[in-house]
Structure formats: C-alpha cells, structure tokens
Amino acid sequence: MNTSVKMILVLTIISTLSGGLLSYWDAYTSKKIDEYRQQEIQQAVKEVLPHTDEEKIRETGDFTFYVGYKNGDITGVAFVAEGGGFQDIISLMVGVTPDFSTFTGLTVLSQKETPGLGTKIAYDPSREGCETWFIDQFQGKKTGNLTYVKNQKANGDSEIEAITGATISSNAVITILNENVPTAKSAFESINQ
Known about the structure:
Strand order of the largest sheet: 1-2-3-4-5
Structural class: alpha+beta
Largest sheet: 5 strands, antiparallel
C-alpha cells in the first residue's frame, strides 16, 4: 500500500470516529439544552406576569402564548417577540394585559449586542441598585406607538428613555415591540373566538 492510500484510510477512520462522537454528544446535550431553555422561558413568564397563580399554554401558528390566571380570571398574556438588533436577533419575553393595551413586564431572553453598550438593554452594571432599569421602564406603558427620548427622562404612557450610546439597541427593542404586539393581539384573538 502506498503512502497516500494509507493517509486517506487513516483520515477517513479519524473523520468517521470524530463525526460519530460529535453526533452522539449532540444527541446527549440537546435534551439538556432544551430542558434549560424551557426552564428559562418559565422563569421569564413568571417575571413578566407577576400576579398569576397559574399559566396555561395556548398555541397558534406563529406564537406560543402563556396565559396567566389568578382565581380563574385571566390576568395577563406573555409571548416571545423577536427582531433584529444592532448585531443579531434580540429575543424578548413580553407580558401584556389581557386586552394587549398595557405592558405588565418585559425581559430579554437572548441578545448579542455590543458589550458594555447594547447589552445594557438587559443589564446595566453602571446603575447600581437598578441594573434592569431599561426593561423595567416598559412595565405599565401603553402598547402601540412606543417612542424613545435621548438624554432625558421619559414622559407619558408610551415614551421610553434610550440607553446613552446604544440608541440603535434601544430603538430595536421598541421596534420589536411595536411590530409584534399588534400581530400577537390578532393571533390571540383568533384562537379565542
């Protein structure tokens, strides 16, 4: 056997073993990753729907709704909203009142914004004691035409203070909400008819 046939044979065996090992490892870890994601989603639902005894899942084509109940009455609805940020997709868990008119909470599920700037949409270490100030300001705001202001406090039911130096990320969150809430409302109403 010449040298090139031996090299091809050795490389084929190594590639096959490596591929098999990676395939096995993927099958093993994907279940654990899915379980972790479900726990993360359940925690996010509890954060954006704080006044509930139980949550029930209702699904439609594009949305999975987590409907919050207290004493048998619907207290809020949560769903995932996604859209483009400065670097990548921003994924949010959005909580709204049953009529979709007011935000009950908001949390960031995933984002890959610029470290130290855009990442402040989820957590801002420069604001000691109020690290989640950006997403906290959505609670109680009216859905619909959210806007942002720069370098000043937000006023009104639909105005949000943008993060200094990260206006694109701030605007991305607002755009995601302005685009997804009406669509989610229509989808939710269609499954409740």
